[in-house]
Write a structure and sequence with these properties.
heterodimer, A: 473 residues, alpha/beta, nine-stranded mixed β-sheet, three-stranded antiparallel β-sheet, 15 helices, B: 500 residues, two-stranded antiparallel sheet, two-stranded antiparallel ribbon
């Protein structure tokens, strides 16, 4: 569907508005409202601010603060409302939490975790959008293992890597050759390469396979307006823009009476159909969320989250994790990586996005402290970018890419790869080949941390290969 | 398969809901609201028909159908060209003008993308709320999902795609619809047929034409058929310089012989190959079944009786894919008449029905985008080619239900208080002159539903509106100013309004 017609090495696609309008658009969460909400957004590189598009920093902060305060007073449930304890058997997963970060738009893995040891095969194709060899000044890679080097803006993650809680996987990704954002994201999130119309995402299938474990309304949360595809398909996952937003609106002086009427109308004490069940979950969520809002959240250990949508999303995941409300899966996006022109590996869009990513994840790691032993964070992106940069100091849609794993159960301090090399004959349609199926990385997390034996249901028609990247909980 | 609610709850939603997501699945579950299931006669036949062929039964529409009768009203709606729609047209004019702009004219505007997106959204909402050609709008919605096109790549073609290619033929002939969409730049780009050339065939459109547009995934075609259909459509390209934008390029067409669905496509032809495939696919028996089943799922039940699907398919075939006789048959069938309350309103249907029930009108339609985003169904924003799900299961989420409650309150309450400026409501004008809370609740529920709600629901509303003082409580200006908006909102948020 999308920019499959973007030609490698070409300046940029002239056929589709995404490129031909000359506007570098943030390819954020490409879900339903995205097209419309990005309407009118001008090609504003994010040099100045990482606050969500269309929202000034002031209004963003105001929203976070004041709505939250109102939420407290409105969502306090009266005594007649039953406190519905949700079924939770934390011993099954030991309270393990998995956080999936989707880097939408196709992050340039060759400028984030650079294979500097490839020498000319890397540098000849990348005259400007590259990292220098370690030790060669400000724009040099931070060495990881004598082969790969980290972008300097990812420095905050290096300490975690050195401590053994962070690993990189390289030359990984979706094996399907599509270079369409939409198709690639859909297939990745379905967990089924080659399909465009599955009925559910891989996380949703995990939830179905283990539905009896945990009845919390917070079991699976997608940070954002709508659920990511990975969480779609007949499960009660919660799309949460912000904790403060999950409450009933209406006249404050009538709200309790209205809630009581709705509880009666939906017979939540004895739900009679699926819609009633959802109503009951909503009331249960009001109840739980009230405890989250009772006090202003203070990150621990001096952690400072970026004031970006990504940073604020991670902070809310941290808050839910610490509140022990039953959170098991969280999905969060960081978009904007579709850097066809003026990529800005240093001092530009790409650089700033990397900072947001690194500062967010390192703040989360610090904030979680000892809890990181039970948390696994994984990043993915729909495809990598072209080995050779294009004529506009950017890169086009490529193939193989990197993933990141962070957590106490991660066999860290390594760059895991069956490096295919960048020799012309080793490339896949001109770009980095994929030697590790991204599903192997995910499957290992699901089986070793979440203890689900239903890998064949979660990733149909796929034989997994153990990687040794995630140790059993 | 129809499961009782009890057995569904025991299954726990997992496998059940998964199968329900597949459009056209015979395994789809449905849930009937207990109150209506217990009293099938609760919804009068005329109101049941209105609930399904309109975007929400209003008192005006009920009066109109009661005046002429069920069948005559249906006939009126089946011939929309005879219905004067001047009032809606004048509201729409600024937006239809944008939708129908030629590509060069559109490009010459300051911000064509914003202009077009606003116009698409405004037109679909204004028509749904205000048009008197209500059945046409529901059928346009059906085909818009069936021939779904979304995303940024072909955004500039989407105005004419939805407003002309789909709308002009929605009640016409099925083969024409397939042809009009096949050669439209919006579809050519969306499903990559514009890069489908003899040297490098691209199967994207071919596969979806068979799987989603005509025969259906179980329609009996093979992988070879997909490959050969792709070859048949090589050279179908886009040229933005010519009116319509469709261009057949013989130089990129595969002129070798092909075999599709058991028929031979001789060598040496050009555009005739694709036209031949469209003819074959449109009159294929599997297509009659597939389209009929989808229509039944959209208009009757998530699990339509096979008897109705079969009889509808027979009408489809006998009339060479003419849509009107098919719909006439469907809405006059006994199966349809027995289906009251079996469909969950999708978010867009809920939203428009709520607006109609509250007598609301837009001042600045694009502001509705925020409501629709929260509800999870912004028109023309379903990116995969299979269209928004027609069945209930994927829409029954905690977040989605909370969004319905809050949007109902926004429409009836926030607009009253001036917090939301995108629309206008005048609830006081809709309720007559009730003396007691009992009368108030009756009047509001009649305005919204048109029929008598079950006693437990009415009692809940009376308790709410009277602060537990009972039906005899006098209606005062103070009570109205505190309760009228929220009472409307509660009724729109109630289960009875989610099902129809």
């Amino acid at each position: 569907m999308a920019c499959s017609h973007t030609k490698r090495g070409g300046k940029h696609c002239t056929r589709c508005p995404l490129h031909s309008m000359g506007a570098r658009r943030r390819l954020g969460k490409l879900s339903l409202p995205a097209l419309l909400s990005r309407r009118g957004e001008r090609p504003e590189p994010q040099e100045k601010s990482l606050v969500p598009a269309g929202m000034t920093r002031r209004s963003f902060l105001q929203k976070m603060g004041t709505v939250g305060a109102v939420g407290v007073s409105l969502s306090v449930l009266p005594n007649w409302m039953p406190r519905m304890a949700f079924a939770q058997t934390p011993d099954v997963t030991n309270g393990e939490v998995v956080i999936v970060v989707f880097l939408r738009g196709g992050i340039d893995g060759l400028a984030a975790v650079a294979p500097y040891f490839e020498g000319r095969a890397y540098y000849d194709n990348r005259p400007t959008q590259h990292l220098k060899e370690p030790g060669r000044g400000a724009e040099a890679a931070i060495d990881l293992d004598g082969r790969f080097g980290l972008h300097p803006s990812l420095l905050p993650l290096k300490t975690i890597y050195d401590g053994g809680d962070l690993a990189f996987v390289h030359a990984t990704g979706l094996t399907d050759p599509t270079r369409s954002h939409f198709d690639a994201m859909m297939m990745m999130e379905f967990g089924i390469p080659g399909t465009q119309s599955a009925s559910d995402g891989w996380l949703a299938r995990y939830l179905k396979a283990t539905a009896a474990r945990n009845g919390s309304p917070f079991r699976a949360v997608g940070m954002g307006q709508v659920l990511p595809t990975s969480l779609m398909g007949g499960v009660s996952a919660l799309a949460l823009q912000s904790i403060a937003d999950f409450h009933m609106e209406g006249r404050p002086d009538e709200l309790q009476r209205m809630q009581r009427a709705l509880a009666d109308l939906y017979t939540i004490q004895a739900p009679q159909d699926e819609l009633d069940q959802q109503a009951r979950l909503a009331f249960d969520t009001f109840d739980q969320i009230q405890s989250l809002q009772a006090v202003a959240y203070e990150p621990a250990n001096g952690a400072a989250y970026p004031e970006s949508e990504f940073g604020m999303g991670l902070q809310q995941i941290a808050q839910m994790t610490k509140a022990d409300v039953g959170l098991e899966l969280a999905a969060i996006d960081l978009g904007g990586w579709d850097t066809h022109e003026q990529q800005g590996t240093f001092g530009g869009t790409f650089d700033y996005l990397l900072q947001d990513l690194a500062n967010g994840l390192s703040a989360f790691y610090a904030d979680m402290g000892q809890r990181m032993r039970h948390i696994t964070v994984v990043t993915m992106s729909e495809f990598g970018r072209t080995i050779d940069e294009n004529g506009s100091a950017g890169t086009d849609h490529g193939h193989g890419n990197f993933m990141m794993l962070m957590g106490g159960g991660v066999n860290g301090g390594q760059v895991y790869t069956h490096w295919p090399t960048m020799a012309p004959e080793a490339l896949a349609d001109g770009d980095l080949a994929i030697t590790t199926d991204y599903r192997d990385v995910l499957a290992e997390i699901v089986s070793n941390r979440l203890h689900s034996a239903d890998i064949e249901f979660i990733f149909p028609n796929f034989r997994t290969t153990p990687l040794g990247l995630v140790v059993p909980a | 398969m129809t499961l009782s609610r009890r057995s569904f709850l025991q299954i726990g939603g997992a496998a059940a809901a998964a199968s329900a997501l597949t459009v056209g699945s015979t395994e789809a579950l449905h849930w009937v609201p207990p109150s209506i299931q217990a009293n099938p006669a609760l919804v009068p036949p005329n109101i049941h028909l209105l609930n399904r062929i309109t975007w929400g039964a209003t008192p005006d529409a009920i009066a109109a159908i009661d005046a002429v009768g069920y069948e005559a009203y249906l006939e009126e709606q089946l011939t929309p060209e005879r219905i004067d729609d001047g009032a809606a047209d004048s509201r729409l004019r600024p937006y239809t003008a944008v939708l129908n702009l030629s590509l060069p004219d559109l490009y010459s505007t300051a911000d064509p993308e914003a202009l077009l997106v606003d116009a698409l959204l405004s037109a679909v909402l204004l028509r749904a709320v205000h048009s008197r050609r209500q059945l046409l709008e529901r059928v346009v919605e059906f085909w818009s999902d069936h021939f779904n096109v979304a995303g940024e790549d072909q955004i500039f073609h989407m105005g004419r795609y939805y407003n002309q290619a789909i709308r002009d033929h929605a009640l016409g002939n099925f083969r024409t619809l397939v042809l009009e969409t096949a050669k439209h730049p919006a579809m050519l780009i969306y499903l990559d047929n514009f890069v489908n050339i003899a040297e490098h065939p691209n199967e994207n459109y071919a596969r979806e034409l068979l799987e989603l547009h005509t025969l259906g995934v179980n329609g009996g075609y093979t992988e070879d058929d997909v490959v050969n259909v792709a070859r048949a459509f090589t050279g179908w390209q886009v040229n933005e310089q010519i009116p319509g934008g469709f261009h057949f390029n013989p130089n990129e067409h595969d002129t070798d012989a092909k075999r599709v669905l058991g028929e031979s496509l001789p060598a040496g032809r050009g555009i005739e190959d694709g036209l031949h495939v469209i003819d074959m696919a449109a009159r294929h028996p599997a297509t009659a079944q597939f389209i009929s089943r989808k229509l039944c799922i959209h208009f009757v039940s998530d699990t339509p009786p096979q008897s109705l699907v079969n009889s509808t398919a027979a009408v489809f075939t006998a009339n060479n894919g003419e849509i009107r006789p098919v719909l006439r048959h469907l809405f006059n069938s006994d199966e349809f008449k027995a289906s009251a309350g079996q469909k969950l309103r999708r978010p867009l249907t809920f939203y428009v029905a709520a607006m109609r029930a509250a007598g609301a009108s837009f001042t600045t339609p694009p502001e509705a985008q925020e409501h629709l985003s929260r509800l999870g169904q912004v028109p023309y924003n379903w990116l995969p080619p299979n269209g928004y799900p027609a069945v209930a299961a994927p829409w029954m989420t905690t977040n989605g239900l909370l969004a319905r409650w809050n949007v109902a309150m926004r429409i009836t309450e926030a607009t009253q208080s001036g917090d939301f400026t995108g629309m206008r409501v005048h609830l006081h004008e809709l309720i007559g002159r009730p003396v007691t809370v009992g009368e108030l609740v009756d009047n509001v529920s009649t305005q919204i539903f048109g029929y008598q709600l079950p006693a437990p629901d009415l009692q809940t509303f009376i308790r709410y509106a009277s602060d537990d003082a009972g039906a005899a409580t006098p209606v005062t200006p103070a009570l109205l100013s505190r309760k009228l908006g929220t009472l409307f909102g509660l009724m729109l948020a109630s289960p009875a309004f989610q099902w129809h």
